[in-house]
Amino acid sequence: MSTSELAWFKSSYSGSQGDSCVEVAQGTQAIHVRDSKDQQSPELALSLTAWNDFVTYAAQG
After folding, report:
1. What is d(CA 32, CA 37) in angstroms, rounded to the nearest whole number?
2. Kindly report the CA angle at 1 between 13 and 31, in degrees rounded to 5?
3. Of 1, 35, 53, 61, which has the fewest CB atoms closer than 10 Å, so is most exposed?
4. Tell me, what's the pLDDT at 45?
């Protein structure tokens, strides 16, 4: 599956003015993260384990 075929969604914590938005999409082997303002920019791909660790850490703050 190419990243253009992924179902992207914006973070619920993104800015209301559209100036600080992050989008994520779940692939079969990774979670993909990109800047919604520049959808052609490079994406960050995290393993499912790394994403889970990140979300757990972020929820503590």
Report:
1. 15
2. 30
3. 61
4. 95
